[in-house]
Description:
By secondary structure, the protein is of the alpha/beta class. It has helices at residues 21-36, 59-67, 126-130, 153-161, 179-183, 194-197, 200-207, 225-239, 273-280, 288-297, and strands at 8-16, 42-43, 49-53, 76-83, 90-101, 108-119, 140-144, 164-167, 190-193, 218-223, 244-249, 255-258, 261-262. The relative contact order is 0.13.
Amino acid sequence: MEDALSAVANLDEWSGEDTSVVEIERALAGLRLESDSDGVPHLRTSVLTHLAWVPLEWEQRALDTLAGLAERHPSRTIVLVPDPEADHDAIDAAVSLRCFSLPDVEREVCSEVIELRLRGDRCVAPASIVAPLLIADLPVFLRWRGVPPYGDGPFEQMIDLVDRLIVDSTEWRDLPRDYGGLVERFDRVTASDIAWARTSRWRAMLATLWPDIAEVQRIRVRGTEAQAQLLAGWLRSRLHRSIALEHEAAERLEGVDVDGEPAPFPPGDRPHASDLLSDELEQFERDRIYEEAVRATLE
């Protein structure tokens, strides 16, 4: 899909302050009607509904990542920006219809983006706001930025609404402790972790060291805390025994030492954030190996 589509051909927008879900639905219908009247046939090829819970401190990074997805995953994307400290209760919305041209075909593929600022108490029950905006009979993915507030109303509501939860434990501060709440919800919602995806090349490389790696006693990881914890957890869960972890902080995964010996650097390039999220939006089944690795980080 990424190679088949070009840059944005048309961008139709609507915005409203202190609005309602009914007005947002009307705006979507109006944008579609206006788009269909320009003489270019449009394909409604949404394959999923993509929700993103984006606290203010994550907003720009989240929007940068989402900008690279529309061509690859024609969908309805709903970005929720909570502002619980606002001095009034309201929903401010920005709705856009983003259409991409198909090469050699006089048609366009369109995606819908709904940005909702939930002010004041409108943050308390986001599921009731989002539910009417979901596309019926399509899977629903939720990207939760930052540490999930386990037990908190909005988070618990949202995971009961979706088919898959996507997190990035690189964004979490208290590892491996923060994994505990996620483990407790594995049987409630299918979970993905972008930090786990970033270790895939290294896991494949370490697997090539078999059978020698079966005797490993200690690993040293130069990377993020999440990458170090997940690699150690993966080895513990595969080998069914304790393995000591030493962590050297770095912004990306730069190296792994196995019992003091540097492991070979894996081939391939470091994936872009949009690519990682795009890959997670194509996964529908539970990743039991990931779940076992996360559990093993807590041992």
